[in-house]
Task: structure prediction
Amino acid sequence: MMRPHDDRRVLHTPFHSRVAAACETNEWEDWKGYTTPLSYTDVELEYFAIRNTCAVFDLTPMTKYRINGADAGAYLNRLVTRNLAKLAIGQVMYVCWCNDAGQVLDDGTLFRLGEDDYRLCSQERHLDWLHWSAMGFDVQIIDETEAVASLAFQGPTSCAVLKQMGFSDVASLKPYRFRTFPFEQREIMISRTGFTGDLGYEFWVAPDLAELLWDRLMAAGENYGIRAMGGEALGIARIEAGFIQAGADFVPAQDAVRNGRSRSPYELGLGWLVHLKKGNFNGRRSLLAENAAGSRYRMVKLLIDGNKPANNSFIFDKNGNAIGTVTSATWSPTTKSNLALASLDTPWGLPGDELYAEIYYIRELKWTRVMERCRVAEEAFFDPERRHATPAWDF
Result:
């Protein structure tokens, strides 16, 4: 009998034998109890594979909950802030969910697998909260993190490689849709989803097929520049896409110890996920009040002068007042820009505001402090047409 993945302290994913063999840098991190690589060979080469060819990322540690039963749809519509009325079978929606105070517990993707069958994927673990929220609903909730191996496959040549593997109709798969395909006399699920802001897919497969999937993918992608990518390269890509991450850009409400440290969807730039007219859901009363009165904070995308990443920087107004902090930052090799996501006190963070980032960097044990001008970006830093095109482009 398979034990819940929470019962073990150090975990290996079903891809670990292949991942460990490819990880030349031997740089690892703990992702919810799993050992996952920060890098494999060279972060820049892995990053450029995402943007110019294709790259694979072991996604298995992402928490996955299977939710089914007669009330599954009604339960999930009560749980999340977004209206799920138009979520069709075979479709994926980006959602967030809150506590009663309207503070975000997490964000993630919701897959509708069948009429009353769903999979909710998230960064954090929420099994207790999901069960508490299910009181009165006829639903079954199972943590299937360990039972489903998942692999992200991202980059311009990803569709071409999948066609080389025999998934001939994959090009017609629309963004945020998924489909099952034959694989080794069995089935594999492929979704057109990802965390890079580029053309890409994610695999969902039984653990005993994981190593074979990795091998077949690497063989098919050999002439297309395929690489394995670690967490550092993925981090650069997701900031370019303007995607926020739990634990980096916001504190999940269940983890916040001090008042004011958690955030609402409006304060994270996720107001478009809040559908106040759909009826009751967790946190609705608080979000109604915030929508009327205004929010405390604003999450913004910043273009920063210079080339020194503004990691953990304070943001100041033109009078020298600290008005926020950077939550994520990177130098973007594609846009050739210094990028950041930042949480600012309202009313700051509107286009045209005169803002400055206080950046400290070290060279040969000497620390230097610079104040660099910031500009608020209204759109994603990187959003190529190939990400949205259907049929997917063949590079």
In short: The domain at 296-378 is CATH 2.40.30.110 (Elongation Factor Tu (Ef-tu); domain 3). The CA atoms of residues 13 and 244 lie 25 Å apart.
